[in-house]
## 1
Amino acid sequence: MDHLPRWADVVLVPLISLLLAAIIAALVLLSIGQSPVEAINVMVEGALGSAYGWGFTLYYTTSFIFTGLAVTVAFHAGLFNIGGEGQAQLGGLGVALACLFIPWPHWSLALIGATFAAAAFGAAWAAIPAYLQAKRGSHIVITTIMFNYIAAAFLVFMLVDVLRPESQMDPATANFPAVTQIPTLNQIPGFSLIFQKDVPANVTLFIALVMAVVVWALLWRTRLGYQIRAFGKSESAARYAGINPTKIIMIAMLISGGLAGLMSINNVMGEAGRLLGNSASGAGFIGIAVALMGRNHPIGVVLAALLFGFLFQGGAELGLWTKIPIEMRTVVQGLVILFTGALDIMVRMLLTWIFGLFRSHKLGAA
Amino acid sequence: MTATTANLGTGGRQATAAPFAIELKGISKAFGAVQANKDINIAMPRGTIHGIIGENGAGKSTLMSILYGFYKADAGQILINGTVTPIPDSQSAIRAGIGMVFQHFKLVQNFTVLENVVLGAEDGPLLNRSLTTARKLLTELAREYELDVDPDALIEDLSVGHQQRVEILKALYRQADILILDEPTGVLTPDEADHLFRILKGLKDQGKTVILITHKLHEIMDATDNVSVMRRGTMVGTVKTSETSPEALAELMVGRKVLLEVEKRPAKPGALILSVENLSVKDEHRVERLKGVSFEIRAGEILGIAGVAGNGQSELLAALGGIAKATGKMVMNGIELPLRGAGANGQARRAAGIAHVPEDRQHLGLIMDFSAWENVAFGYHNAPEYQKNGLFMDNDALRADARAKIERFDVRPADCWLPAKSFSGGNQQKIVVAREIEQDPELLLIGQPTRGVDIGAIEFIHKQIIALRDQGRAILLVSVELDEIMSLSDRIAVMFDGKIMGFRDPAKTNERELGLMMAGMAATESQKGAA
């Protein structure tokens, strides 16, 4: 088979897929009597047109980087972790417990403590499906999906019956102490020149970017990453090499769950300041699309997270400023996932054919 | 053998008068910078068996893929029965009367033979009519060509040899006049291979043209009328089989003289390295596959394990290599190694000085998606020389090491960044052998060292094994190629049904005796002979 040049595979295929998704989305808008031009204007203006808009886009991006990296690490071990949603919610519980019950002297210490709590709770939630996969052969896709529901139910129980202050009506924890409030971008010296209004994006963004580098180094520069990737590509060969399957499954899933859990520093600690039900609000699932579109590489994950951050924020703006229903946001996300994930093989085949024509033309001319 | 070839030669001459079944004129095909086929010309007379040989990567498969419509040639013409026939896809190839039997069968495992034969060539929306015609045809073919297969058997219940017959039946059902077989005997036992060649001769006698792609010289000599030799994308010559010799063909293939026999000095067995007692292995269905095997290997000695594939050899290697759980006793250099539990794994075995070239390089020995340099560390990724700063792997050291090994073992192309799957089978094997031999192990386990490997590389790998032996290392060689066992081993153990049937001195035995032992027969008789 003829192959695509690498640049075309990495850059051209996702771009064309995105373009196709945009065209279909435009057709959907036209069919409900709305103007696609107006919609894209509102989305770009609202998500990227101002520092304020960027403040929201980057906030969503931060969450998606964590959940995208979580899926990526598991994927390289040949494991499809669909449980990012539940792991992120448990991470939120960890953050809440750390913020509510430990008297932190300063936000920076609270941040470190909450980071460990979030990662530990997320990892613990992933550990059970991982153990069942490694020892009992229960398929990780099934168990992680089920654990999302268990997590949701468990959180409702914790919020309603355990953590809710007595006088409060809604199922949520009390507000975290003010000292645990981590700086948002507009509160950071230097960045405050750009972000003049209050934005939800916060220092967690930098943790996310650091984690992207850490994940890259882990997978492609360390012995553990080597073993994870070897196991993910061929379990039988890994056994031959004396790589312990149980160990790799456990470690990869603990890292994956920990990364998913980390997202809750962004939304629970950085934004809400208390733990609410359904705190991950779908970011765990978006992480699957982000990893898929980012080709399971940290750089791709960061870029894809930015795209989905834009779609999330832009979509919200649509609901705010136009007659386009907010559900359109879900439609656009669905189309992007469909084209960049499921249908990109179609685009790739088309491109391979076009490149093939181009090549034989060149040969004929020579 | 000479009588057979003479017969075939006559057949070939008679057929030359008829128009050519296939003519390829000036076929060229490039993949990027690699010229896979360069100006290929062949003419194959109707009613002959035409062999195509060449090393792995010589361009045989590309040429056949062009003929079967998988690739489009950059230049050149294909003539079928004297008329120019463009073949843009495999449907056109089938219409032109070309049938292909692939190395890896393309059968639906849980369909019956009949359903597989008809699949894709049904002559209507209702299956019944096609199935009835197919059943009739199958019965006729079975009678005519010894192509008997139960039409109602499920593919998954058939032996490999029978599955291959289904592939041939599929092609004949589609009215193929020209049959291409790609490395057909790689998966067959000697008996099944003989049967296949009888079938091919029957087809030839009916006026069909057979193209046989192989790199086994004795098959070419036994079965073909004419033979074309390819080397690095070019056709270096087409000769009548009756007018050539294996040595001449090997030289044409490789471009230099090749030693078909291994040169080695007598072994000087030294200290006891490995002793195995009563080793047994059960598979996942708790069926005993290895049944209480005992043997010893000394330094500077090659113990060859002969046997038909599937008689416990794979389990023996897996148990010794730390991949499968086993019972019994394994003592290496006086130290007993655990056969199950935490200490029984590939890392522990490597630490004990055991290197392992597995039988299945694609599923065990290599990570096919990893680059060559990543594969060079595979299994030895914990070695201190591959680490730096206590935290990271020293990828520069890995690449330097890979480049050195690639050069010493003449791996082609010499590009350590290429993924393992992009190398030919022979070069993949060289990567594995280089990795394992260069560890300078006390004991080398080596399974099917030359399976799917071309002649030039076979010679090279055999020399490496002998060299390691001469350095005083112990070697356990498992191979289904009896020639290989007989020429390399210092002692031969024959396995049948999970047991060792007996040990033989290669100088004092012959293929017939070993063949009987491999079939589980004459064990008692041959033991008497040994006593």
## 2
Amino acid sequence: MNIFSKRKEQLDRFKAYLHKDQDNQSIKRSVPEIIEVCPSCHGATTKDTLEKNMYVCNTCQHHFTLSADQRIAYLLDKNSFKEIDAHAKSANKDNFTMYQSKLDQAISKTGHNEAFVGGIGKINKHRVCFGVLDSNFIMGSMGYVVGDKITRLIETATKRKCPLILVIASGGARMQEGILSLMQMVKTSAALAQFDKVGGLYISILTKPTTGGVSASFAMLGDIILAEPKAMIGFAGKRVIEKTINETLPEEFQKAEFVLEKGFLDKIVTRQELRKTLSDLLDLHQHRRR
Amino acid sequence: MIKKVLIANRGEIAVRILRTCKEMNIETVAIYSTADRMSLHVQLADQSVCVGPPSSIDSYLNMNNIIEAALSTGCDAIHPGFGFLSENAAFASLVVECGLIFIGPKADIIEKMGNKIKAKEMMREANVPIIPGSLGVVKTQQEAMSIAKEIGFPLIIKASAGGGGRGMRVAKSIDEVVPAYISAKTEAKAAFGNDDVYIEKMFENTKHIEVQIMADQHGNVLHLYERDCSFQRRHQKMIEETPCHTLSNSIRDNIVQDAVLAATYVGYDNVGTIEFLLDQQDNHYFMEMNTRIQVEHPVSEMISGIDLIKCQIIAASKRPLPFKQDDIIISGHAIECRINAEDIKNNFSPSPGKVEFVHFPAGRNVRIESAVYNGAMISPYYDSMIVKVIVVAKTRLEAIKKMRRALEEMIVDGIKTNVEFHYFVLHHKEFIDGHYTTQFADQFIKELLSQNEYIQ
């Protein structure tokens, strides 16, 4: 043992004796909430700094998970967002174990009734139908209410001939709802087909994670598909595939950069540039309106 | 002014002296026994001379060889340090006779003060309070008995040539007087070749307070306040501090004034110390004068900023001290712990050997005086003190805490030391309280030994 450690051990014994009558055990404290640790580089940053930087790590550019409200705040013009169908709530019709309590928890955690928040707002004065999936709400999974809300937003966009922008963060179809949730893939895709027929512009923004039934439906149907750096985009999970095909997959598998290289994305846009990029795209596609 | 000094000592004090010499642009010559060839003082000195085999009698106490070494290397002075020849009047006069400067007081003062009976007599003449007891040597058992009846019990019988606790006997009642008298005489004869003894009243629960004196050959006698050296094991000081925590200012003034009076009366002309015994009523009594630099001198230096070795050299050079009493301003509280190579569990027996690894504490206001380095050999031939840790802080409690911290950092690997012992003392209520007396150490040791498992 290192001689200094040996000495410390010895001193600890002395101190145990010298302070045997005192209860001066130090109380373990957790790091105060003003500190956030980057899950990627493990560097510590204050919440303030992160907020100023749109929750992107200063050191490694890791994009932290955002809530629906944060997305709205970062992308839309101030106070321009009017939510649609905010009251819609899922019911546990099949009495799936624990589902109700998960829903209740998610509602109190996020302050929204479902994983999808949609409505009408403005990006740099362009009116848009805007929707965002919140991964804090049962991993942004798509149940029948999410599917319905998305469909209704697409229909609103179709009716109003208004560009549609969806920010995706979802683990896929909501397992607790079984076949009903899978149905939403069809429903949303069909609504998008109608939207396409009237010449609507749909921009989808894929963030971490975009997987399962969501990636296999409306997420990948954007006229323009953007993604955040290093966002995980795929269908089945990496480990599932590795087990099935009995092969090791490349390190960058299902990363936005890899998906871009394979031709499934149009552009990777950092969070700081996203609003500007959307605004430019909307400028370029103005003629589609009416 | 002195240009080249032979340091007739070894270990940390030799290093301490040569450091000041270097700072004063004085060349240094170290002496060493064959056992000390690799010692730090030899390595740091400008020159070094071997003066004999390991046994002190043949080397560090070998006056002829030492003086020859000084003369042959062209030294103009000898610093004796402490212990060894430092209070040997014959050596001091021999040095002077050989045309060298003895860095210390005049030989006749060493002589007078070295004889405890003579010293006590002079103090009585000077009107400095002395411990009640015999006036001079007690020649017969009958005389011992009559003095005992006069001063009361307990009493202590001491060898006039004694020191370090040898030739001392305590009598607690009238029946013990004669046996104690006889055995003290026998031991004194064996230890010092002189069986003169004297009797003093013994005080219990006393403090050992000493006053640092600085004097020169121009009649200046200054004091550097007191030190509390009450933490002693078998009359060996282990912890010293300054100022004394329990003294009121008026009593402090009385004590230091008496010390100056004593030093002035004997015509003292260098750095020295007057030791007093302080009873429970804060009465002080002269015990003895140390006519040399002392182990614990750094605590006084730390609160005053004065270099006492430098004062010694200045005074020995016949120059006046460069300051007056009013220039001396003390601030803060200093503590010294003497770290010895000894085995606490084994009745504090010396623990010589190779220092495999040493790490000294450092940081603000922590001072180390030592000649130990990684790989140094601690020789069984000499004193077991290897390191002095000195700290200074604003208040006594802060100094205690600083010392604890310093001892925590300290590592001496390869030999056993009393670092832990000190660490425990510094946590004891009675020590922290500051009212501890010379009896405290023994009581503390008993207490500590019952906690055997914690001592290394």
